[in-house]
Design a protein that fits this description.
With 142 residues, the chain is mainly alpha-helical. The protein has a single domain, classed as Cytochrome c-like domain (Cytochrome Bc1 Complex, Chain D, domain 2, Orthogonal Bundle), CATH 1.10.760. Strand 1 and strand 2 form a beta hairpin. This is Cytochrome c. Keywords: Heme, Iron, Metal-binding, Signal.
Length: 142
């Protein structure tokens, strides 16, 4: 009887230990949707966020907003050229912005396409994607 009780206790403890270590016992750790970054988002965070802010609002009289403006939603060639050549002292949507935006021509075509697509599809913007081929064509036309 003592042996039977000992075997039963060992078996119970073994089952409990196995259940505690089984994948079903642990909650699955999936990355939250907010943690998954869109192509272009990392480039934006590294190169654009400081001036244009996390929400794309810009800084009055210094750096223009990136949401709802014709510069972002309109002509892709003009927007691509802003990244390739930089911009300074430009009136945008009736407001003057004096801070110089340096050229970002060090980014490759795919990176520029990704960051511009990110900007054109975030901050309440709903515009079509920019492709690496479009960037390449504008860069070649310089």
């Amino acid at each position: 009887m003592k042996l039977l009780l000992s075997v039963f206790t060992s078996l119970t403890l073994s089952v409990a230990a196995a259940q505690a270590q089984s994948p079903a016992a642990k909650p699955a750790s999936k990355p939250a949707a907010a943690q998954i970054k869109q192509p272009g988002q990392v480039i934006y965070e590294q190169n654009c966020l400081t001036c244009h802010q996390a929400n794309g609002s810009g800084v009055p009289n210094l750096n223009p907003p990136l949401r709802g403006t014709d510069w972002v939603l309109g002509d892709k060639t003009r927007l691509i050229n802003v990244l390739l050549k930089g911009l300074q002292g430009q009136e945008i949507e009736g407001e003057m912005y004096d801070n110089a935006m340096p050229a970002h021509d060090f980014l490759h075509d795919g990176q520029i396409a990704d960051v511009l697509t990110y900007i054109r599809s975030n901050f309440t913007n709903k515009a079509s994607a920019v492709t690496a081929e479009e960037v390449k064509a504008v860069r070649a036309a310089k």
